[in-house]
Every structure is written in C-alpha cells, then in structure tokens.
Amino acid sequence: MSRTIKFAKAGGPEVLEFVEAEVPAPGPSEVRITVKAIGINRAEAMWRADAYIEPVKFPAGLGYEAAGIVDAVGSDVTSFTPGDKVNTIPSFSMNQYHTYGEVIIAPEHAVVKHPESLSYAEAASVWMMFVTAYGALIEDAKVGKGDFVIIPAASSSVGLAAIQIANYAGATSVATTRTADKKQQLLDAGAAHVIVTDETGLVEEIMRITGGQGARVVFDPVGGPTFAKLISALSFQGIAYIYGALSEGVTPLPVLDMIAKMITVKAHNIWLTSGDATRRKAAVEFVLKGLESGALRPVIDRTFTFDEMVEVHRYLETNGQFGKIVVTV
C-alpha cells in the first residue's frame, strides 16, 4: 500500500486528498519508482484548478517531477533495473501519469538516470526548469555571444534556469523583477543586468543596456499588458517566447512594432523538446554537461514534507518563492 495525492474536483489547494491504495505492477514499458523527492511546478496548480493546457479527467493525480529509486520494471524495459537511482522528466500527460505519490509509475521514456552530484531534492528540481529554458533559448533561438536575453519573472525556477543557460551559452542575461526585493538575489544568481520595473521604464532601460539595439530574445511567462513593451524592446528580427500566463489580463500585440522590426512571437512549452526522443536526449545531455561543469545548478527556495502538500500549494500561489519548491518523501 502507498499514499498518493488525488483530487475529485477542480479548486484551491484544499481539494487535494491523500489516498492510500495498492500500487500496480508496471506495464511492459513502465518503471515503478519509490519516491524520495518531488519537484513542484506552477503547471500543477493550474492543473488542480482545471485551467491548464488540457482538460482534467477526474478523479485525477498530479505532478511532473520526482527523484527516487527504481522498485520494479516492465517486461520491455531495458534502460533501468531495480535499485537504480532515477528522476522523471516532464514528458507525459498528468491524465496518464503523476508524481505526487510515495510510489509511482512512469513511462520508461520519461525516466533518466539520477545525476550523481545532486541530492534527491536537487535532482527533483532541475528537469522542468532547465529543459523548458533550453528548448527556447538553445534548441530554437540558438542564443550565443552578442545576444541579449530578457527574462521576466526571473526569480521563478524557469527564470533562474534561463539566466544560467543564457550565461552558459555566452549571451547576456537581462532579468526583470517588479520590486527591488529580489534584485540582489538575481544578481547573485548570475543575471548580468536586473531591471526593477516599478522603479524604471522597462523599454528605456533595455535600450540603454543594449546600446539602443534592443534584445534579440524575450523569454516571458507572464503575458498581459507588459508583453507589448517587451516586444517594443526587441531588436530587428527579435523573437519573443511566451511560455506562461501569469497575468490574467489581456495580452495585446503592438502590430506596427512587429511589422516594422519583423518580430516573431512564439508560444513555447517543454513538450516541443521532451516529447521528441531525439530532442529529449540532446536536452538531457546538455543539462547533465552543464550540471557537471557547474554552469548549471539547482536553486531551491524551500523544502516541505509530503504530508504538507496542501500547504505547499498555498505557498506556491503566494508567488513569493525564489527558485524551486521541493517536497521530500
């Protein structure tokens, strides 16, 4: 018997329930994992509220990231054996698999060997953040020396990953934050520049930093009214990636600015990378190399226990964290 977390209806954190049930044997291409740590993502709060990119099928589980030890493998699994230390990488629907549990089932393609230099808590925090940023900045935009990358909401786990990846690629990271509270933390985290949007004009400051040229890339999880300003701050043929909708307002597009500067706006999510075997392999290799060199490193804001999962979701929705929230099991 093992505990897992389910919810029977959409709602706030209080809809999450602990359910005790027997964990099934893994299917032919599945891996069963005894969980040691779980990485918490904004997507899971949206899923709980039935406001994510696919509709929820109730009763539902949730969770994309976990680190633990292989307990059993299916008959067709060749990459893992019981006793292996592993992590899950987000590359499945939460209608099919989920990681909020003491023992979980995952498809073999979504399981990777545990980076030996990391603790379970650290390993549970890295894959969503780094692969999401990698997909836009490295795989698609191919950022490098001479490029400026604007990173709004930079204190989120993906925002911090984007700072590290931009720096790793030789680009110049420009983090934005609403208030000055997190400015020094962002500088300490590696941001080359930090713009406090409550204190200075966003477009004017970006133009100052870039010598009037604008930034080649924006990597934005917010949308809303500020998105038009970010597009105005792009260089000729710049690219704006939008990978979230933290703002609940309308996201306007400055069409004339876009036409004049030949701007590209791209919706982005991790599935472009993690949903393709070749791209997923390249992303995992990139992240592992970065972790080994020290160029990439997990940033954990706070650790909770599994029994505190309802409180975890309440904390997640305060938007006060700097880095990843992790749950130990």
Give a verbal description of the structure.
The protein has 329 residues and is of the alpha/beta class. It folds into two domains: 2-118 and 298-328, Quinone Oxidoreductase, Chain A, domain 1; 127-271, 3-Layer(aba) Sandwich (Rossmann fold). It is 29% helix and 26% strand. It is built from ten helices and 15 strands. The chain has helices at residues 42-48, 120-140, 157-168, 183-188, 202-209, 226-232, 255-261, 271-274, 277-293, 309-316, and strands at 2-6, 17-21, 30-40, 65-73, 85-88, 103-107, 111-113, 148-151, 172-177, 193-196, 215-220, 234-242, 264-267, 300-305, 324-328. Strands 3, 4, 5, 6, 7, 14 and 15 form a seven-stranded mixed β-sheet that branches. Helix 2 (120-140) crosses helix 3 (157-168) and helix 2 (120-140) packs across helix 9 (277-293). The longest helix is centred in the middle third of the chain and has 21 residues, at 120-140. The chain is globular, with a radius of gyration of 20 Å. It starts with a strand and ends with a strand. 47% of the residues are buried. The mean pLDDT is 96.
